[in-house]
Amino acid sequence: MQDLNFGHLLKANKETIYRICRIYAVSPIEPQDLFQEVTYQIWKSLKSFKGKSNINTWIYRIALNVCMSSKLKLEKKREKTVRFDAIQFKASNDSLNEEDEKYKFLKECITTLNESDTSIIVLYLEELSYKQIAEITGLTENHIAVKMKRIRKKLFDCINPKLS
């Protein structure tokens, strides 16, 4: 059985969890909140881990589920909130270097994808194999391959004009 020491698991997976949180985050401080929620859910659920999958696969599932759930809650909350269009917060882009700008464009384009495609591309960007992505999402490897081809095209079509 794999090492189920919470501290070791968190240390080994914290960068991955945080990257997933950054992709799903809306505001600049939200990744930290999402990270804390994912960490809490891992801690709370660790005793129920049965070892039927790799512990890292299980952690990815928790991270994706927490982030997607948070995004849905935020969208529902926004539907009920009156917007003040005259008041806008805009972060300064003066300090963005080229890599930060590319990341910003990629994140903007990822947010245009549906939930399923978003979770697949997030896992792909984490350099998981199609087999691992299939285990996490419950889809087949062939389905992942087909979806990835379509996702790449959507992202290319979205990001290419921004880089020009």
What is the strand tally?
Answer: 0
Structural class: mainly alpha
**Regions with pLDDT < 50 over 5+ consecutive residues?**
83-90
- Topology order in helix (H) and strand (E) letters: HHHHHHH
Mean pLDDT: 84
Q: How many strands, which pairing sense, and closed or not: the largest β-sheet?
A: none
Distance between the termini: 50 Å
Gross geometry: globular
**Cα Rg:** 17 Å
Question: What's the tally of helices?
Answer: 7
Strand content: under 5%
Helix coverage percent: over 70%
Written description of the protein model:
By secondary structure, the protein is an all-alpha fold. It starts with 5 loop residues before the first helix and ends with a helix. Helix content is 71%, strand content 0%.
Describe, in short, the structure shown.
This protein is 71% helix and 0% strand.
Present the secondary structure layout.
Elements: H1 6-24, H2 30-45, H3 55-80, H4 98-110, H5 115-125, H6 130-137, H7 141-163
Helix pairs in contact: 1-2, 1-3, 2-3, 3-6, 4-7, 6-7
Quick tags:
single chain, 164 residues, 7 helices, mainly alpha
